[in-house]
Hints:
Number of helices: 7
Order of helices and strands: HEHHEEHHHH
Oligomer: single chain
Shape: globular
Helix content: 55-70%
Amino acid sequence: MRMSDLVAQYIQHMLDESDGNAEIQRNELAGELGCVPSQINYVITSRFTPEQGYIVESKRGGGGYIRIQRIKMDRGSAVMHLINAIGAKLDGATAQAMLNNMQQQGMIAPDSAKLMASALSEKAYRSVPPQYRDYLRASLFKNMLLTQI
């Protein structure tokens, strides 16, 4: 398992244990997991984003912390939040992260997530000129999400 996966799993466990709220001391967590503090930053900025259903707040300096909160919304609000977060274009990795988050939060069934992932994958867009792929993926994903409300 990669270090970034281990860090993300550890933070997810902290969130699960504390009802969706975690306060992290970056240097302490890095020492505990045996990584550098910048690895903690990377994981938080790439895997705990608003698009993925999290609010991150940080305080720098002595006694500083990183507070992560899982956004709690009803299904319709969460889907609309995702639709608004997608914007005009969407890359395959971000689409997959959004689907994974939806599945983890029970917003979408595993079979539906697999079907949607297939339709949003890079392989599905091979015949589309590269400059249009992310625009088409965003449009399709938004339409699929609208059926989930």
